[in-house]
Amino acid sequence: MLALAAGCGEPATVVPAHPRDFISLPDSDGGDPVAFRWSSNGAVGPGLTIADAAQPGENDCTIGWPVVSSSGRRGYLSAGHCAGGLGRDTWVYTDGDRRGRVLLGPYVEHEDDTLADGTMFDAAAAFLPGTRRSVRWGTAIGVGHPIAGTLTPQEVSGLAPGTPLCMLGARSGITCGPLMHADDRYLEWGGYAVTGDSGSAVFAVNPDESVCAVGILHDGPTDRDNTIAYVEPALRKWHLTLPRETGPVSGDRC
User: Which end of the chain is more exposed for a tag (fewer CB within 10 A), N or C?
Assistant: First the structure.
């Protein structure tokens, strides 16, 4: 959104939108979930189903935020409660029959707990195998939504109720809904999500449709009443960073 301001006889001045002027995206899949989302081209990226070798097909969740470790390894976050344990392989399906798959690395970080300060922590990290350079590491959130930065729990708790937030789930696709409640421990969100969307990236959308990372889908008592764990505590604890796009959205826009 752009505001125009001009005096009589003066040229209009474009005032950039404040980064807290978050917008919603078209809610194309909300209310009509698919069985699971698979990779048709062998690429891996946010919003696809991630399977845990401990319970494939039963414990499927969603690939959430792409991350880079302090040593440069590339991987993804999902929800901690999706991990059957550390050291078990994970994979992405490459067909609708669950027969083809692209192997990822095992979960090497995993926590589903409440920290001493009351913060909800629900995250797991898996990284691409070092010997599988052919695996394409996708980082965009959906089509045309690069990551612009991260919002801290304190920043999210300062947003007004009703602020639109969106999710990219392996069953529900992109869905958006209002921020219902937020404090510095967790937030409640009124967008649509179902079982299998756990681990999904939850984000705020800038007017240029780049996204600000907010959290990881945890659970919810109903399809439109969901609890979100913040992503920033996991990034900080495990020394991870989110990849940033270069060009018009370079730098932290959040």
Answer: N
Concatenating the DSSP letter of every residue in the chain gives --EEE--TTSPPEEEPPPTT--B-----STT---S----SSS-B-TTSEEEETTSTTTS-EE---EEE-TT--EEEEE-GGG-S-TT--EEEE-STTS--EEE-PPEEEEEEEE-TTS-EEEEEEEE--TT-TTS-B---SSSS--EEEE--HHHHHTSPTT-EEEEEETTTEEEEEEEEEE-SS-EEE-S---TT-TT-EEEEE-TTS-EEEEEEEEEEEETTEEEEEESHHHHHHTT-B-----STT-S---
Instruction: Give the pTM.
Output: 0.88
* Whether CATH 1.20.120.230 fits 19-33+144-230: no
- The average pLDDT across 68-90 equals 90
